[in-house]
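FW: tagging you since you asked about this chain on Friday. Here's the raw sequence from the shared folder, copied in full. Didn't touch anything.
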Amino acid sequence: MEFTIMQNVGLSGIEIAFRRFGKVSSPPVFLSMGAGAQMISWPEGFVEELVKRDLQIIQFDSRDTGLSTHFTHASIPDFTAAMSGDFSTVSYSLSDMAADTIGLMKSLGFASAHFIGASMGGMVAQTIAIEYPSSAKSLTSIMSTTGNPAVGQPDYSALAGLGMPPWDDREAYINWRVKSLKAIGSPDYPFDEKSATNIAGLSWDRDHDQHSMTRQALAVLKSGDRTQLLGQLNIPALILHGASDKMINVSGGKATAEAIPGSKLVIFEKMGHGLPQPLWVEIVDLIASHVHRADSTS
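HL: got it, structure written out here
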Protein backbone atom coordinates (compact mmCIF):
# COMPACT_ATOMS: atom_id res chain seq x y z
CA MET A 1 0.00 0.00 0.00
CA GLU A 2 1.40 3.40 -0.98
CA PHE A 3 1.10 6.20 1.53
CA THR A 4 2.93 9.35 2.57
CA ILE A 5 3.81 10.52 6.07
CA MET A 6 3.44 14.25 6.66
CA GLN A 7 5.73 15.61 9.37
CA ASN A 8 4.96 18.26 12.00
CA VAL A 9 1.23 18.46 11.35
CA GLY A 10 -1.07 20.88 13.14
CA LEU A 11 -0.82 22.43 16.57
CA SER A 12 0.50 19.19 18.09
CA GLY A 13 3.25 18.78 15.50
CA ILE A 14 2.49 15.09 14.96
CA GLU A 15 3.08 12.76 12.02
CA ILE A 16 0.08 11.77 9.91
CA ALA A 17 0.06 8.99 7.33
CA PHE A 18 -2.22 9.69 4.37
CA ARG A 19 -3.18 8.66 0.85
CA ARG A 20 -4.51 10.86 -1.91
CA PHE A 21 -6.72 9.83 -4.84
CA GLY A 22 -8.27 11.64 -7.78
CA LYS A 23 -7.44 14.71 -9.84
CA VAL A 24 -5.76 17.62 -8.07
CA SER A 25 -8.27 19.92 -9.77
CA SER A 26 -11.22 18.13 -8.14
CA PRO A 27 -12.78 19.31 -4.86
CA PRO A 28 -10.70 18.06 -1.90
CA VAL A 29 -12.55 15.73 0.47
CA PHE A 30 -11.07 14.47 3.74
CA LEU A 31 -12.27 11.13 5.11
CA SER A 32 -12.21 10.53 8.89
CA MET A 33 -12.88 7.02 10.20
CA GLY A 34 -14.15 5.81 13.59
CA ALA A 35 -12.47 5.04 16.90
CA GLY A 36 -9.53 2.68 16.55
CA ALA A 37 -10.09 2.39 12.80
CA GLN A 38 -7.37 3.15 10.27
CA MET A 39 -7.76 4.78 6.88
CA ILE A 40 -7.81 1.32 5.31
CA SER A 41 -11.19 0.74 7.00
CA TRP A 42 -12.79 2.82 4.24
CA PRO A 43 -13.72 0.20 1.60
CA GLU A 44 -11.54 0.61 -1.48
CA GLY A 45 -14.52 0.24 -3.79
CA PHE A 46 -16.37 2.97 -1.90
CA VAL A 47 -13.42 5.33 -2.29
CA GLU A 48 -13.13 4.45 -5.99
CA GLU A 49 -16.78 5.40 -6.46
CA LEU A 50 -16.11 8.80 -4.87
CA VAL A 51 -13.15 9.37 -7.19
CA LYS A 52 -15.26 8.42 -10.23
CA ARG A 53 -17.54 11.33 -9.34
CA ASP A 54 -14.76 13.89 -9.73
CA LEU A 55 -13.75 14.15 -6.09
CA GLN A 56 -10.21 14.35 -4.76
CA ILE A 57 -10.05 12.03 -1.75
CA ILE A 58 -7.60 12.33 1.13
CA GLN A 59 -7.63 9.38 3.54
CA PHE A 60 -5.50 9.41 6.66
CA ASP A 61 -4.71 7.57 9.86
CA SER A 62 -5.92 9.77 12.69
CA ARG A 63 -3.68 10.20 15.71
CA ASP A 64 -3.26 6.96 17.65
CA THR A 65 -4.10 4.76 14.64
CA GLY A 66 -2.13 3.11 11.88
CA LEU A 67 1.14 4.77 10.98
CA SER A 68 0.38 8.19 12.44
CA THR A 69 1.74 9.35 15.79
CA HIS A 70 0.68 7.24 18.77
CA PHE A 71 0.37 8.74 22.24
CA THR A 72 2.05 5.84 23.98
CA HIS A 73 3.73 8.20 26.44
CA ALA A 74 0.35 9.26 27.83
CA SER A 75 -1.36 7.95 30.94
CA ILE A 76 -3.07 4.57 30.64
CA PRO A 77 -6.68 5.56 29.89
CA ASP A 78 -9.22 4.79 32.61
CA PHE A 79 -12.58 4.43 30.86
CA THR A 80 -14.54 3.76 34.07
CA ALA A 81 -13.20 6.93 35.69
CA ALA A 82 -13.97 8.99 32.59
CA MET A 83 -17.53 7.69 32.55
CA SER A 84 -17.82 9.05 36.10
CA GLY A 85 -16.52 12.47 35.03
CA ASP A 86 -12.85 12.02 35.98
CA PHE A 87 -10.90 12.99 32.86
CA SER A 88 -7.45 12.92 34.44
CA THR A 89 -6.28 10.08 32.16
CA VAL A 90 -7.71 11.62 28.97
CA SER A 91 -4.87 12.49 26.60
CA TYR A 92 -6.71 14.72 24.13
CA SER A 93 -10.12 15.78 22.82
CA LEU A 94 -12.03 15.83 19.56
CA SER A 95 -10.82 19.43 19.20
CA ASP A 96 -7.23 18.16 19.07
CA MET A 97 -8.19 15.62 16.42
CA ALA A 98 -9.99 18.33 14.43
CA ALA A 99 -6.85 20.48 14.62
CA ASP A 100 -4.83 17.54 13.25
CA THR A 101 -7.12 17.31 10.24
CA ILE A 102 -6.99 21.04 9.59
CA GLY A 103 -3.22 20.89 9.96
CA LEU A 104 -3.02 18.16 7.32
CA MET A 105 -5.32 20.17 5.06
CA LYS A 106 -3.06 23.22 5.34
CA SER A 107 0.10 21.14 4.90
CA LEU A 108 -1.34 19.90 1.60
CA GLY A 109 -1.91 23.49 0.49
CA PHE A 110 -5.70 23.74 0.84
CA ALA A 111 -7.37 26.79 2.35
CA SER A 112 -10.63 24.88 2.74
CA ALA A 113 -12.11 21.46 1.99
CA HIS A 114 -15.07 19.14 2.41
CA PHE A 115 -15.15 16.81 5.41
CA ILE A 116 -16.73 13.37 5.66
CA GLY A 117 -16.64 11.38 8.88
CA ALA A 118 -17.98 8.00 9.93
CA SER A 119 -18.83 7.16 13.54
CA MET A 120 -16.22 8.96 15.72
CA GLY A 121 -14.91 10.44 12.47
CA GLY A 122 -18.31 12.09 12.06
CA MET A 123 -17.81 13.70 15.46
CA VAL A 124 -14.40 14.98 14.36
CA ALA A 125 -15.92 16.35 11.15
CA GLN A 126 -18.67 18.07 13.17
CA THR A 127 -16.01 19.59 15.41
CA ILE A 128 -14.12 20.89 12.39
CA ALA A 129 -17.29 22.57 11.10
CA ILE A 130 -17.86 24.14 14.54
CA GLU A 131 -14.31 25.29 15.27
CA TYR A 132 -13.01 26.03 11.75
CA PRO A 133 -16.05 27.35 9.86
CA SER A 134 -13.99 29.15 7.20
CA SER A 135 -12.14 25.91 6.39
CA ALA A 136 -15.17 23.66 5.98
CA LYS A 137 -17.07 23.89 2.71
CA SER A 138 -19.41 21.05 3.60
CA LEU A 139 -20.00 18.40 6.25
CA THR A 140 -21.10 14.80 5.77
CA SER A 141 -21.71 12.95 9.04
CA ILE A 142 -22.23 9.20 8.68
CA MET A 143 -23.54 6.88 11.44
CA SER A 144 -22.53 9.42 14.08
CA THR A 145 -24.11 11.49 16.85
CA THR A 146 -24.07 14.80 18.72
CA GLY A 147 -22.43 13.83 21.98
CA ASN A 148 -25.74 14.11 23.82
CA PRO A 149 -25.86 10.95 25.99
CA ALA A 150 -29.63 10.78 25.57
CA VAL A 151 -29.26 9.79 21.89
CA GLY A 152 -27.10 7.52 19.77
CA GLN A 153 -26.48 4.92 22.47
CA PRO A 154 -25.29 1.42 21.47
CA ASP A 155 -27.32 -1.75 21.75
CA TYR A 156 -25.32 -3.31 24.56
CA SER A 157 -26.98 -6.68 24.08
CA ALA A 158 -25.44 -6.90 20.60
CA LEU A 159 -22.00 -6.06 21.99
CA ALA A 160 -22.13 -8.13 25.16
CA GLY A 161 -20.40 -11.22 23.80
CA LEU A 162 -17.52 -9.45 22.09
CA GLY A 163 -15.28 -8.57 25.01
CA MET A 164 -12.07 -6.58 24.61
CA PRO A 165 -9.74 -6.99 21.61
CA PRO A 166 -7.00 -9.59 22.22
CA TRP A 167 -3.85 -7.52 21.69
CA ASP A 168 -1.32 -10.32 22.16
CA ASP A 169 -2.29 -12.61 19.30
CA ARG A 170 -2.70 -11.68 15.61
CA GLU A 171 -5.09 -14.50 14.69
CA ALA A 172 -7.23 -13.95 17.78
CA TYR A 173 -7.42 -10.24 17.00
CA ILE A 174 -8.50 -10.92 13.42
CA ASN A 175 -11.22 -13.29 14.62
CA TRP A 176 -12.41 -10.72 17.17
CA ARG A 177 -12.47 -7.95 14.57
CA VAL A 178 -14.46 -9.99 12.06
CA LYS A 179 -16.91 -11.11 14.76
CA SER A 180 -17.34 -7.48 15.87
CA LEU A 181 -18.01 -6.23 12.35
CA LYS A 182 -20.65 -8.92 11.91
CA ALA A 183 -22.29 -8.03 15.23
CA ILE A 184 -22.70 -4.34 14.41
CA GLY A 185 -23.05 -4.62 10.65
CA SER A 186 -25.99 -4.89 8.27
CA PRO A 187 -27.48 -8.41 8.54
CA ASP A 188 -29.81 -7.85 5.58
CA TYR A 189 -26.82 -7.45 3.26
CA PRO A 190 -24.07 -9.97 2.43
CA PHE A 191 -21.05 -9.83 4.74
CA ASP A 192 -17.72 -9.90 2.91
CA GLU A 193 -15.78 -12.03 5.38
CA LYS A 194 -12.73 -12.38 3.12
CA SER A 195 -12.31 -8.62 2.82
CA ALA A 196 -12.96 -8.10 6.54
CA THR A 197 -10.35 -10.71 7.40
CA ASN A 198 -7.78 -9.16 5.05
CA ILE A 199 -8.32 -5.65 6.42
CA ALA A 200 -8.18 -6.90 10.02
CA GLY A 201 -4.85 -8.61 9.33
CA LEU A 202 -3.42 -5.55 7.60
CA SER A 203 -4.64 -3.36 10.45
CA TRP A 204 -2.82 -5.56 12.96
CA ASP A 205 0.36 -5.44 10.89
CA ARG A 206 0.25 -1.64 10.67
CA ASP A 207 -0.64 -1.03 14.32
CA HIS A 208 -1.84 -2.96 17.35
CA ASP A 209 -1.61 -0.36 20.10
CA GLN A 210 -3.78 -1.80 22.87
CA HIS A 211 -4.76 1.59 24.35
CA SER A 212 -5.36 3.68 21.23
CA MET A 213 -9.05 2.89 20.82
CA THR A 214 -9.71 3.72 24.48
CA ARG A 215 -7.76 7.00 24.23
CA GLN A 216 -9.96 7.98 21.29
CA ALA A 217 -13.14 6.89 23.08
CA LEU A 218 -12.17 9.07 26.04
CA ALA A 219 -11.65 11.99 23.67
CA VAL A 220 -15.30 11.59 22.69
CA LEU A 221 -16.43 11.52 26.33
CA LYS A 222 -14.36 14.55 27.29
CA SER A 223 -15.67 16.59 24.37
CA GLY A 224 -19.27 16.43 25.58
CA ASP A 225 -22.48 17.49 23.89
CA ARG A 226 -22.18 19.49 20.65
CA THR A 227 -25.91 20.05 20.11
CA GLN A 228 -25.98 23.77 20.89
CA LEU A 229 -22.86 24.48 18.83
CA LEU A 230 -24.20 22.45 15.91
CA GLY A 231 -27.22 24.71 15.98
CA GLN A 232 -25.00 27.67 15.16
CA LEU A 233 -23.59 26.14 11.97
CA ASN A 234 -24.14 27.72 8.58
CA ILE A 235 -22.81 24.98 6.35
CA PRO A 236 -24.25 22.46 3.87
CA ALA A 237 -24.64 19.31 5.96
CA LEU A 238 -25.60 15.79 4.91
CA ILE A 239 -26.46 13.29 7.65
CA LEU A 240 -26.51 9.58 6.77
CA HIS A 241 -27.47 6.80 9.16
CA GLY A 242 -28.72 3.24 9.23
CA ALA A 243 -31.97 2.38 10.98
CA SER A 244 -30.40 -0.93 12.06
CA ASP A 245 -27.25 0.60 13.60
CA LYS A 246 -26.38 -1.26 16.83
CA MET A 247 -23.25 0.77 17.65
CA ILE A 248 -24.71 4.27 17.36
CA ASN A 249 -28.49 4.24 17.45
CA VAL A 250 -30.22 6.05 14.60
CA SER A 251 -31.48 8.60 17.15
CA GLY A 252 -27.94 10.02 17.04
CA GLY A 253 -28.21 10.76 13.33
CA LYS A 254 -31.67 12.22 13.73
CA ALA A 255 -30.49 14.46 16.55
CA THR A 256 -27.54 15.64 14.46
CA ALA A 257 -29.85 16.60 11.59
CA GLU A 258 -32.29 18.30 13.94
CA ALA A 259 -29.45 20.33 15.45
CA ILE A 260 -27.89 21.62 12.20
CA PRO A 261 -30.04 24.21 10.41
CA GLY A 262 -30.93 23.25 6.86
CA SER A 263 -29.23 19.86 6.99
CA LYS A 264 -30.40 16.87 4.94
CA LEU A 265 -31.05 13.56 6.69
CA VAL A 266 -31.14 10.23 4.83
CA ILE A 267 -31.87 7.03 6.75
CA PHE A 268 -31.17 3.63 5.20
CA GLU A 269 -33.64 1.18 6.68
CA LYS A 270 -31.48 -1.96 6.47
CA MET A 271 -28.06 -0.43 7.12
CA GLY A 272 -26.18 -1.12 10.35
CA HIS A 273 -22.89 0.37 11.55
CA GLY A 274 -20.95 0.05 8.33
CA LEU A 275 -21.07 0.70 4.61
CA PRO A 276 -22.62 -2.35 2.90
CA GLN A 277 -21.50 -2.74 -0.69
CA PRO A 278 -25.03 -2.79 -2.21
CA LEU A 279 -25.55 0.78 -0.91
CA TRP A 280 -22.26 2.26 -2.12
CA VAL A 281 -23.58 3.79 -5.32
CA GLU A 282 -26.61 5.33 -3.62
CA ILE A 283 -24.55 6.72 -0.74
CA VAL A 284 -21.78 8.02 -2.99
CA ASP A 285 -24.28 9.69 -5.32
CA LEU A 286 -25.75 11.54 -2.33
CA ILE A 287 -22.30 12.59 -1.12
CA ALA A 288 -21.03 13.65 -4.54
CA SER A 289 -24.10 15.75 -5.27
CA HIS A 290 -23.83 17.35 -1.85
CA VAL A 291 -20.13 18.15 -2.21
CA HIS A 292 -20.33 19.49 -5.75
CA ARG A 293 -23.35 21.64 -4.89
CA ALA A 294 -21.57 23.08 -1.88
CA ASP A 295 -18.34 23.58 -3.81
CA SER A 296 -20.09 25.53 -6.55
CA THR A 297 -21.70 27.93 -4.09
CA SER A 298 -18.79 28.46 -1.68
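FW: The longest helix spans residues 280-297.
HL: agreed, and The beta strands are 4-9, 14-21, 28-32, 56-60, 113-118, 136-142, 237-242, 264-268.
FW: great, closing this out.
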